[in-house]
Amino acid sequence: MIANVQQNPIAPWLQPLWDSMDFNQFPNAILLHGQSGIGKFEFAVTLAKSLLCEGAQDTSRPCNQCVACHWFNAGNHPDFIALVPETHRKLLPRADYETDEAPRKGKAARDDADGEASEKKEKKNISIEETRSAIESLSIGSHRGGNRIILIYPLEMLRSDAANTLLKSLEEPPANTIFILLADRVDRVLPTIRSRCRLLTAPRPDRMLGLSWLHNQLSQIPGLKVSDADISSIYDEQGGAPYSVLNSVIARNNKDEKDELTIAIQASRYLLQSMSQGGRINWLDAAEKTHKAQYSFLLAAMQRWTSDLQAVLQGGNPRYYPKHLTTLMGLAQSARTPKLHHFWKSLVQARRHENHPLASRIQLEALLSQYQQVFEG
């Protein structure tokens, strides 16, 4: 479930970054990185549209009036190529991808018939076939005689063979071709790719600005009923990522129990409820009840909780779960600092391999068992 409510596709906290764009001297490749759910993708899509726009001056891109803009809005611009996993295609403009129909041809269609394992693999990776096809198409001139844009998201999810194919094009970029690369975790992007791009950091909004924007977006949805307290709570749980909050609230309002984000939020709440028990945590039960949710999401929730616990232990205030201050203060009294630091390092290590096809339940059990030991003498 992806929100498409706002009128201005550039979020206010990203406006300064947008204003810094020089369309007359745009680099061959940019790498936009920052936290997931803060509007990077929406920013990048508007940027691609602006670079293809044929009817506007720099100060008014995109014009939304020219043929190129109309084609882009319809998802039919011949000089726009987007490489995204299947689960992210609904983020693309208007999309021929908004349907729930299975892919009609090629390897993706065959993979769908191979069962759940293939489906998960398809969702996580951008295939080498898609990457090669996109790169090979660059040898043909642009259809409109202007820029050609290749957008790749999330870049860190490229398989190594696909990343090497991309690298060759970045080393010798075709004429009038611009690569817009997006990463939630820039540390996972090959250094050789990073070195050939202009790095742009997408900032997370401060809490007041993020909540204000979020309330404005939600107010445009007819019949939506959600309390301010609930919005604030979800906002903190999501690490201050307004787009993630918006999508999760919409999915819950639509009672979409199969939505991946809804499942992950419900699981993370149960996980945190279990972690609030400290040394009394039933880690086997917690792993059993949550392991089917997206593993990276669960790890992020565990990291945020542990970060808050570390902050309270050092006399500070929780950043992500301020409403649980009393619980965190109680846990801080029995937590063993060296063990907590060791647990933090284990979480960091786990996040480096969060997309590895291992059984997440076993990994969760190991981590939660270690968490329990933080509170043992």
Short description:
The chain is an alpha/beta fold. It is built from 17 helices and five strands. A five-stranded parallel β-sheet has the order 2-3-4-1-5, sandwiched between helices.
CATH class of the largest domain reads Alpha Beta
Whole-number tally of structural domains: 3
Helix/strand/pairing class, anyone? alpha/beta
Rg (CA only): 22 Å
Under the CATH scheme, the architecture of the largest domain is 3-Layer(aba) Sandwich
Count of DSSP H/I helices? 17
What fraction of residues sit in β-strands? Answer: 5-15%
Count the E strands. Answer: 5
Order of helices and strands: HEHHEHHHEHEHEHHHHHHHHH
Principal-axes shape call? globular
Low-confidence stretches: 95-122
Biggest sheet, spatial arrangement of strands: 2-3-4-1-5
Q: Mean of residue pLDDT?
A: 82
Q: Helix proportion of residues, in percent? A: 40-55%
- What is the CATH H-level superfamily of the largest domain? P-loop containing nucleotide triphosphate hydrolases
